[in-house]
């Protein structure tokens, strides 16, 4: 491709609403343009990268036995009513009535559609397993779309769905997708981790998220410094050394005045105790019913763990009025002693110590010397808090790290959630009707484009992994009026194109500074620069965009020199 | 690909709602499945053909200087309000409000979006011309979706938009697209005609439609038996030999009773006149105002011609009450003599004759001996009727034919309709602000899949053009338990795959009859059959799906024999 014929409107300034680097650079590099909130047009360069990402994903899906189909974007509401998601999904599901007043929605995901497709046709175990996938535009009406392609409303996803006849087959399907994802992300040139993820209220199932590592990531990952353990923060367990407990003696309960001391920090300071000796009592409305949770004052509750323990879908922190009603006191003075709520849960950690300070359920009062087994009507104790850097790896006891990541893939065991709701059955070997066992597997194709940039950029612009750069090589003609330079550029352009190298020739009549800046900004992995002076010395220059490394390639042995340089660049990208 | 691992659910019966052959065969061949009215899922084979069509279109668009982008499906209503189409477009535009109550629509076309994109960035004549296209899912809320992929609600289109600095450039852009379409449809293996089309109320512009020829086509085309003239029925002009007129004498007007004679046929029979001597008087509401049209009793009015002549957008045949109000008589007795409506138009043909019988604007009365110049207050005469087989070619005077076609492409000069409404300007060479001149160019990618089948099928199923068949070769293993047959099949499968031939191996444990039926039904262009008896004779059989021609390919010189057979098959498909 010639840049003179390419629509690549690069910009000096990022748009005012761009908060993250990938959004800024995608717009500045002329790859995307905003149409409206959370909805973007892909310009030629953006579309090329998107296509390359999609193609790598497609190849790995096909290699793993996936079959590509293409399902509609507009879905009938009836199917969503059948699974109950029409009512549960919330306003992110964009609903629309057609001209005849029938309910439809724009698909944010396709479990209903694919299950409907298969239940009509697959009747025998002989037709299983089946893995159907598509690469398609999705819509999710985010309340606050932001971060460019990171959290848009319209986006491109690969979504796959597996159907198996038994648990063993479902495990194999899941493993095949896990492996395909691993291969795909490696080929995409991204540093990533597959982490255990919480699978919500769907019983018996589990899931992994694939996270692109980036300091700007929205998600926190927990990884071990010694073993392979990796989980997202919601999922990561806290484990305790298996030592005999000696909680020690606890004096009698004593109430003390703590006037106006609402927060853990205030109470700790006032009582001259460390925060770790204050018992934090949180009150929640869990599916409409009161639940109290106890944990150390310096710890954070992991709400997902609480949801799973309590078996509830909706969890909301109780407001001041509810706290008053349930405890008789203002916010800040709730405590477990004498608390009359149906369920009181304790984080496992506090079961290993005694002599706590806690709210007294009276305004401006706390109580000292609380011993949980002695003083509290506990429902259950479990791991309920968020892991910290000081905790050991739950797998091996080693140290942990907590890097940031961007979720770009998710593999998920669905079990029979959808096949049961939609009656997707088959006849097994014995002629008996059975529910299909399903899995679903998503990759955020457009999100990968953003995540790749969040991971790979510098002060000059994007640093694209070669496999997804819009072009692998930028060939810069310095001096559009210098006949020798132009002739050599054209010759090398032809040579590289004939070799099958994905090359963009910057043949514009622009100054060298503009060409260098644009090439750096878009982040083509290799720059080949044809300039008058160097050419007079019989060389052209090559640059590795990632490392900044430069080399002089002799024009009379260009091809071998280029191949060697390219190999070197690509090796640097091996994941 | 192995058929044992392919999701290809063929059916013996077509669905009850399938009216046309392409719909029946696409479903029976396991290529598509209906999700809901006018909305289909593409199964693996359907998606492959769809992809092949898209890829050919893409390559020809790129070769013609088009740049592929990817615009959103969900479009802000504000842009449509800017061009006025929000109010004009009607219920086919599926409108939706997002969670914040803002207006959006599902894009049936992208003029607004692409003009919005370009007006923000293209500022100089140096950035023109520009041709941006995409291949994307569109939505049009048809009132009565039918004919499967022929008239669906959700469909795949290639839509391109050109921007030029002047009329000369716009002509060149149009010509480039016309040529690209011609190349694309040839490569698609379709017999087609590019025909002149009406371009509606957009002044000064013109357009061509690309029609796939098929006896089942919805559209009628007018072509010349001698010259290159081709137009759609709406556009085709009627011309008359340039001879001096001798309309002859006309007696005085005489009113006659024609009790209960409402139709032209009834009146002609009653008056013992040929239908061609009855003057048909049609009354229309044209943008709300009455318009009368006169034409020969045996002719059909072409409403498009009337719209263009009258310069109106909406045309509705007047109802009985309006007819009564305007003429004083019931339907069937309207006539031009003494008719008091603002505009009376005559079809050119009736200006060449005299002595007409016409309605008398009184119930059960007609008037004889009407001479138009003498008796009628005419507004204008023009070519207003639909062409017939008896008319001469308007270009050369030769004979005409009227084959049926399916519209699969449309090239259209937009002029400044959108650039003016949306203020898409640039600075010309003199630094003066000018409106961009636009064109738009559509290809119905999913519709081509249906049209190709309407054109190419027989009693056994689809007869796919090789370039868009889901697989070019079906390799049938007859006898999954015969080791020699299986071994030879596998060997040939590997050989063909390695050669880059797009081959599907039917390795299922099915009976030969099932395999033959399925291969014929899906319509793979070449069948290669490995059977025990033939193999014992040292041959495999090959069949040309289109002609039914068979050949024996010796296994010890398979490759050359196959190549020759394939060349022969492909030659038969040359357009």
From TrEMBL, chains A, B:
SUPFAM superfamilies, per the entry: Class II aaRS ABD-related, Class II aaRS and biotin synthetases, YbaK/ProRS associated domain
Main location (coarse class): cytoplasm
Subunit details: Homodimer.
Name by which UniProt lists this protein: Proline--tRNA ligase
Catalytic activity: tRNA(Pro) + L-proline + ATP = L-prolyl-tRNA(Pro) + AMP + diphosphate
Domain remark in the UniProt entry: Consists of three domains: the N-terminal catalytic domain, the editing domain and the C-terminal anticodon-binding domain.
Record-listed E.C. numbers: 6.1.1.15
Cellular localisation: Cytoplasm
A Pfam match: tRNA_edit
Entry superkingdom: Bacteria
Gene3D superfamilies attached to this UniProt entry: Anticodon-binding domain, Bira Bifunctional Protein, Domain 2
GO BP annotations listed: prolyl-tRNA aminoacylation
